[in-house]
Write a structure and sequence with these properties.
By secondary structure, the protein is of the alpha+beta class. It has two domains: about 220 residues, 3-Layer(aba) Sandwich (Aminopeptidase); about 150 residues, 3-Layer(aba) Sandwich (Aminopeptidase). The protein has eleven helices and 16 strands. The chain has an eleven-stranded mixed beta sheet with strand order 3-6-7-9-16-10-15-14-13-12-11. A five-stranded antiparallel beta sheet has the order 1-2-4-5-8, sandwiched between helices. The chain is globular, with a radius of gyration of 22 Å. It starts with a strand and ends in a 9-residue tail after the last helix.
């Protein structure tokens, strides 16, 4: 832990920690739960999740994600008043809000873009609280402390990724630039009468005839190949299940020419520490397990309000197996269990045909170089207009039937 340094506010003392375990888990999680939607944002900002990334070796200097968490404590009581998971990064992988063009522009002008600062959940395209604070004043002081750290470390930029409206307000007040990107989410809400879908057939009936026919064809291909699924949730996911999932996940990454971001130690750690957050779909062909997909769940009561499609992998090739494991099985489960929203993550226009519609997600950005800050502000204005047109064009091709 770095030596405490004074923030601009006389109410707080800023501390920087490089190992999440230096912050008490109950302190961090209490602050998270106090945020708007803090209990309903999945496991990703939970202390155990972020600590598992660190202890498993997924986030460290070697992987290009150096923890540099910023905390604010009340000066006299020592109580944790605000905190943010800041990472110093030497690349732009695993962020899902893409700034490769910004890095290339810096390089063309003889300026370095890395290292940069990122406030985010590594490898996770799920929006949620990023600037944890016990009120607006503490959140504003936290943004100032993050900018102070970025300047002190000589970072080219600071990026608060996939944040919430409360984060947005504080970042806007501090002058950070706004960026809007698109994700694909499914909502358990009939497009005509607005009630939750009664069952899978009710969902299919809400789709246009061609989309309904295509989904049935895709599901039939998987069934005709002899593939069946079993679903395991929470503590019913055992060590053997996690090992099988990791094998599928890693092999699929390697088949696409990339090393997996996450490792066996991480998945075992979050499975043990946060069992209530996980839902595992395992595909079988006869007695043989051939594929698995992992879904995360929100933590806001017996019936989760949201589910998040996260990772999948397969050891055998079956036509349309990816669609079945990653969309149709999870959506059917959400309908059966009254889950209100399924987030399919970033990218993938093919998701629209399956009922996942484009939604806006937001980030905030600070650039150290004044000329680049001006240029990127201009670029973001134009990008927002293009993103809005893109989202509207995709929504015009929504798969749902028109109201009679």
């Amino acid at each position: 832990m770095d030596a405490p340094t004074s923030s601009e506010s006389t109410d707080y003392v800023t501390q920087v920690v490089h190992d999440p375990r230096e912050i008490a888990a109950d302190e961090w999680d209490a602050l998270l739960r106090a945020q708007p939607d803090g209990a309903a944002c999945g496991p990703f900002m939970r202390h155990a999740y972020l600590a598992a990334l660190h202890t498993s070796g997924c986030t460290n200097a070697a992987t290009g994600w150096t923890p540099h968490w910023v905390t604010l404590r009340q000066r006299f009581s020592g109580r944790l008043a605000a905190a943010a998971p800041l990472y110093v990064k030497r690349h732009s992988y695993g962020e899902y809000v893409f700034d490769w063009a910004w890095a290339a522009a810096h390089q063309r002008h003889g300026l370095r873009y890395y290292p940069k600062g990122v406030v985010a959940v590594p490898f996770t395209p799920v929006a949620g609280p990023r600037l944890l604070a016990d009120g607006a004043a503490a959140r504003a002081a936290l943004v100032r402390a993050l900018l102070d750290q970025a300047r002190a470390l000589g970072l080219s930029s600071l990026h608060v990724l996939l944040d919430t409206p409360a984060d947005e307000a504080a970042a806007q007040a501090a002058g950070l630039l706004a960026r809007e990107t698109v994700q694909f989410h499914w909502h358990n809400r009939h497009p005509v009468h607005g009630a939750a879908f009664a069952d899978w057939d009710d969902f299919l009936a809400s789709l246009s005839q061609d989309k309904r026919k295509k989904i049935r064809q895709e599901r039939r291909k998987v069934a005709d190949a002899g593939v069946t699924f079993e679903v395991r949730r929470g503590a019913h996911i055992n060590a053997e299940d996690w090992d099988f999932f990791v094998r599928c996940y890693a092999q699929t990454y390697w088949e696409h020419g990339n090393p997996p971001y996450l490792n066996r130690a991480f998945f075992h750690a979050v499975g043990a520490a946060l069992p209530e957050h996980w839902l595992l779909f395992i595909a079988r062909m006869g007695e043989r397990r051939i594929a698995a997909s992992l879904v995360a769940l929100s933590d806001d009561g017996p019936s989760p309000s949201a589910a998040y499609g996260r990772y999948w992998g397969a050891l055998a090739r079956v036509d349309c197996l990816h669609f079945e494991a990653c969309y149709y099985q999870p959506l059917a489960w959400c309908i059966a269990h009254g889950v209100g929203r399924f987030e399919g993550g970033a990218q993938g226009e093919h998701k629209v045909a399956r009922g996942l519609l484009p939604v806006s997600v937001h980030s905030r950005h600070w650039l150290a170089h004044p000329a680049f800050a001006d240029a990127i502000a201009y670029y973001l204005d134009r990008e927002r207009a293009a993103t809005d047109e893109y989202r509207q064009a995709l929504r015009a091709h929504a798969p749902f039937r028109q109201a009679p």
